[in-house]
Amino acid sequence: MLHSIIDKLKTDKTLSDNEFLRLLTECDDNALQYIRELARETALEHFGNYIYIRGLIELTNYCKNDCYYCGIRRSNRKVERYRLDLEQILSCCEQGYAVGFRTFVMQGGEDTAIKDADIARYVKEIKTHYPDCAITLSLGERSEEVYRSFYEAGADRYLLRHETADSEHYGLLHPAKMSLEHRLNCLHVLKKNRFSNRNRYHDRYARTNHDSPAQRHTLYRRLATSNDWHGSLFVALRYSFCS
User: What's the CA gap between 239 and 243, in Å, rounded?
Assistant: First the structure.
């Protein structure tokens, strides 16, 4: 029975190598149903029976990267480019706040024309005008110093996703200058700089046929290193099995 392993994952937020492999390779319908039930309990425990709505502010669709799957990749000459200024950003917040949004997500490509100091200034301005609102940033890979400056400016969360646990597969999706190792290191830097300690960082695990159970298990082990997850690893496992 896998139930004891699933219970351990819920309690300890991690498993041994062999336990992770068993869970990833031996999960049957009965175990999957148990995972769903506990995942629902975990969600209700932390979020209650509520739906949280976030207002997305698309800061820019310029990007220095050329990820092959992305519609705003650098080499796409057909997309109509734009970037918002501070006045436009605050106007978005004003409209969102009026209809009840209390979290704003400022996201966009890695636009070199918008300086890191500008982003920190935007965060401070939003916090000044709407101090009861949370701010999430999703602006790609940055240095540790820059992530820290965003946090100190008032950003509450940072959204950074990885696409696969397989570095070879990652290479099929991105130019050679980008690497899965660097992407995952950014996640650890975010944790180190208290984004995850104060408000959990987010990552979306996109299961693909390229990723073996061993690769998925290794990635889970690497990321599941603290209790700051509040069960999000458990929920991530649920969706990995369901995909």
Answer: 6
Q: DSSP assignment, residue 229?
A: G
157-158 and 103-108: which strand pairing?
unpaired
Residue position matching structure tokens 């997305």: 56
222 contacts 180 by C-beta, under 8 angstroms: no
Helix (H) or strand (E) holding 134: strand 134-138
Residue whose C-alpha is closest to residue 223's, from 23, 32, 15 = 15
- 55 φ, ψ to 5°? -95, 120
pLDDT in tens, the chain (243 residues): 799 999 999 999 888 989 989 998 999 999 999 999 999 999 999 889 988 889 999 999 999 999 999 999 999 999 999 999 999 999 999 999 999 999 999 999 999 999 999 999 999 999 999 999 999 999 999 999 999 999 999 999 999 987 787 889 999 999 999 999 999 899 889 888 777 533 343 343 344 455 665 566 566 556 654 444 333 444 444 444 433
* CB half-sphere exposure, 2, CA atoms < 13 A: 22
Question: Rounded CA gap, 237 and 27, in Å?
Answer: 11
**Distance in angstroms (rounded) separating the CA atoms of residues 146 and 190:** 10
Q: Is residue 198 within 8 Å of residue 167, measured between CB atoms?
A: no
Q: Whole-prediction pTM value? A: 0.75
Cβ(1)–Cβ(215) below 8 Å: no
Closest residue by Cα to residue 57 from 18, 91, 98: 91
Bridge-based pairing of strands 157-158 and 134-138 is: parallel
Assign 203 to helix, strand or coil.
Answer: coil
